[in-house]
Design a protein that fits this description.
The structure holds two protein chains of two kinds. Chain A contains five helices and 14 strands. In chain A, the strands form two sheets. A nine-stranded mixed beta sheet of chain A has the order 13-12-11-10-6-9-8-7-14, with helices on one face. In chain A, strands 2-1-3-4-5 form a five-stranded parallel beta sheet, with helices on both faces. In chain A, helix 3 crosses helix 5. Chain A starts with 7 loop residues before the first strand and ends with a strand. Chain B is α/β, with parallel strands linked by helices. Chain B is built from twelve helices and 14 strands. In chain B, the strands form two sheets. An eight-stranded mixed beta sheet of chain B has the order 8-9-10-7-11-12-13-14. Chain B has a six-stranded parallel beta sheet with strand order 3-2-1-4-5-6, sandwiched between helices. The longest helix of chain B has 25 residues. Chain B is globular. In chain B, 53% of the residues are buried. Classes of the chains: A alpha/beta, B alpha/beta. The interface between A and B is large, with 44 and 44 residues.
Chain lengths: 254, 344
Amino acid sequence: MTGSSRRWGVHSEIAAYRAAISELPTAVHATDDPAGSIVVVPGAGWQAGVLRAGGDGAVAVIVDEPIGPAGDLDVPLPVVIARRRMLALPELREPVAFVTVDVSGSAQDHPAALRDGLGLARRMVGGALQLEHARRTSHAVTAVLTAADGRPVAVTVADVSAPQGAGRLRVRGHGVEAIEALVDDAVGVRAVTVESGDGIRRLPAVHEAPARAALRAAVAAISAVESTLPDLAEARCDLALTTMILDTHLHRSE
Amino acid sequence: MPYGVGIIGAGPGVAALHLPTLGRLAELFEVVHIADGGSGRASGLAEPIGATASTGIHDLVADPRVDVVAVCSPPAEHAAHILAALKAGARGILCEKPLATDPDQARLVIDACRQAGAALVVGTNHLYDPAWARAKHHLLARGARVIAVDVTLSLPPNGRYHALVTDQITEPAARPLPAHLPPEVQAGIVRQLISGLLVHDLPLVRDIAPHVGEIDVARFIAPLGCLVVYDGGGMPVRLAVVMRPDGADVHWRLTITTTHDHIDVDFPPPFVHTGSAVVTVRSPEGTLTRYPRSATDGYEAEWRALAQQLDGAAVTEYDEPLADAHHALAVADAAAARLRGAVA
């Protein structure tokens, strides 16, 4: 399953990764030594963690749910960005006309949820987004972004009285075919559906833990002759936009 | 004894909407007269139901069997046709949306209806959908503060739904729009999409967010649609619509986000009679509540509301439809102006 015969050490203090290690017994093992290992860096303060891991001799880094801007961080080792809401999306036969991104929940959950909402929207329109407008009201932030060809992405982030970790992300691409990615932590749903003239297709549920998938990706990247992980570059775009939107009082690009 | 209905207009909205709907309400209404504007379509619609057909509005409003006039003519003619019907003594008016195309006309029409004591319903059917009453009741009972309102509509061609309710319409071939439309044309389309299509939902939006503040964003969406975001009085209102050439079933959703929950109101496709919208509430704890769907849809409900007014069982509202008309026109005009300004 991993495509590698070597067992790589994994240095992590995050419980989900320690559990995932036990689900990949032939590929990885736990270690306290970052040198020569896969190092898992938590999302808060992750940039410093990545640099430290590189300095400690890590062979790959997994950043778990990064928040805050990436700046110009660049390191000469594979960096896997674990984003549990970034569900895999199928190719559509026709491009979507516009995308709506709706984030709601506790304000502490907004940065990660919006980051992935923007990432899903970016994939739905097939390219980078540019912020056109953002406004904050007492309990919500709205934003409109545009793809290179002008297709809009409309974002609403709502502060709802919800426990932390019980938020909802709903991203929907509207067009001849409609695609919806729904991650509802309170309900316990992660689903992608595609609607067309033939009906509604629900993609197979993802039963693998996100931490295990991230570990597999890291092992595959180490084993690859030339690693071309897009994770860091994509996260850089999504995190920068997330920060611009959530920090906004009023942003208008015109 | 059913009320006699005269219908001004003989387009798809009459063939696929009002005639089938009134056919379901035979105990309340009987279509006695249909008038076209010169197309000759009225006779084809009137003959199968034994109604009279005519051209122009004179014969129809003078027909003594006509108690109620359904104004289904082009929007720019609505006001004049309502005034003519009232002058001829109509007891009730059902006016297809929009009530009028400018605020002064709307006031003139409402004043005339009030003076005549005529029953009045504007065909913004979502306002009458029983599901909306449920959603509002939930909002009021919960007492949570509304923090965002979204209306999103993705609509395939109407012909798909016309074919389910009538065999009297030959759908014209769709004409593709040019790839690049001048800003002024885009602004005009956006205004029409708001005042002619999103107007179904704007009375609901107004119930929650009556204020029309600064338009943050107004965008034309290809092939034919728009995105409008505005300040609804401390809460954002987002309106998004696209009319597409084919594909998935209609997606027509009003979402109200409060400090405590999300309320999705999913409306059925236009023209068909499959029951009310579906209301789904998600609590912060993750409990999903789906209210039972009523067998009555908004189209039936609006005609029933008119019958109740005619019977004296319900009071006719004049200020509310006027405020709804002014609100919709305010949004449409402001969005069009914003678009002109933004792309000039």
